Amino acid sequence: MRVSGYFTASWKSLTVMSFRLLFLLPAGLPVHSQGDSQSDNKVMDNITVRQGDTVSLSCGQGDLVTHSAWLNRSSIMYAGEDKWSVDSRVSLVTLNQDEFTIKIENVDMTDEGQYVCAVQTRSKATTTSVHVIVQVPPKITSLSKDLVVNEGSNVSLICAASGKPDPSVSWKIISPSAQSLPSEDEYLEIQSVSRQRAGTYECTAINDVATDIQTVELTVNYAPSVSEGKDVGVTLGQQGVLQCEADAVPSADFEWYRDDRRIFNSFDGIEIEDSGALSKLTFFNVSEGDYGNYTCVAMNKLGSANTSIVLFVQDGNSAARAALTSTCLLVLVALQLLLKF
User: Fold this and answer.
1) DSSP SS3 for 39
2) Where are the alpha helices (DSSP H) in 211-315?
3) Are 249 and 221 in contact (CB under 8 A)?
4) Rounded distance between C-alpha atoms, residue 105 and residue 93, angstroms
5) The CATH fold of domain 40-135
6) CA 36 to chain centre
7) Residue 137 to residue 123: CA distance in whole angstroms
8) Domain assignments of the chain as residue spans, ordered by start
9) Average pLDDT per run of 10 along the chain, which is 341 residues long?
10) Cα 121 → chain centroid
11) Is 227-314 in CATH node 2.60.40.10?
């Protein structure tokens, strides 16, 4: 408590000294300290301002004012209408018998602190002090870069932010679906990451002033898995298509085999078309030699998977009978509907 009292007294003494020197008060003229009946020392409520905004500082004058000044950390900013500050952001707003107001534009953190309005009348000195608090919007200063990992790896994401008041930081995944994550600070830890955790992660830093948001893309690589192949029946001389679908990151490359022999595009009237996760093997004119078992292999740098598909003979007569049967069923249904009416 003694230390605090010492600095308070020192501040008051420094203010009084600056005030006395400024106005060249004779030594015999009393400049009273707090508690004297001829002095008036007031403390106004704190002023809170956002970084970049303008703050106005105002104090009352009263009758018979001989001198007045605004000070910041014992440095004189304005003495009456005379500007002492070299800061171009500081300017005089009002100076009359009732009010002495200055303003500071584009406020920054360096402007935070105590300001004193000192007024000297013929009978006493008056000081009015106010503390300016500068609030700073949050800014994300350090963010993990987009990340590519293999499935099963441990992932650590960081999002550090500055601001005043200190911002709170939170994480959520916003794609493929929005979902809050159990993280209330700048670190997000994911143990043994799965492919389902891949997506866009959003870091939010927020305080009383504003919000800052940035995103990180997490890509999870995994080996291919292929859907079970569906056997295809084709009539001799017709077109047949075998399809192979694979789920993989990065996307899989496809290869087709007949027994142990690899099939290449445009070989013996066969076309191979790969499009994203799907590969098609097309026979434009199926011959006897085309019937048999085919293997589709999907591969990327993490592994491979395969499935077998049979191209079998579909009897033309059987197909015709099947079509006829369908037609007959449609006719029967139509007759039943007509009989109801």
Assistant:
1) strand
2) none
3) yes
4) 12
5) Immunoglobulin-like (2.60.40)
6) 57
7) 46
8) 40-135, 144-221, 227-314
9) 35 45 39 48 94 94 83 92 96 92 96 95 88 97 97 96 95 82 82 94 95 97 96 95 97 95 87 96 94 97 97 70 53 61 57
10) 56
11) yes
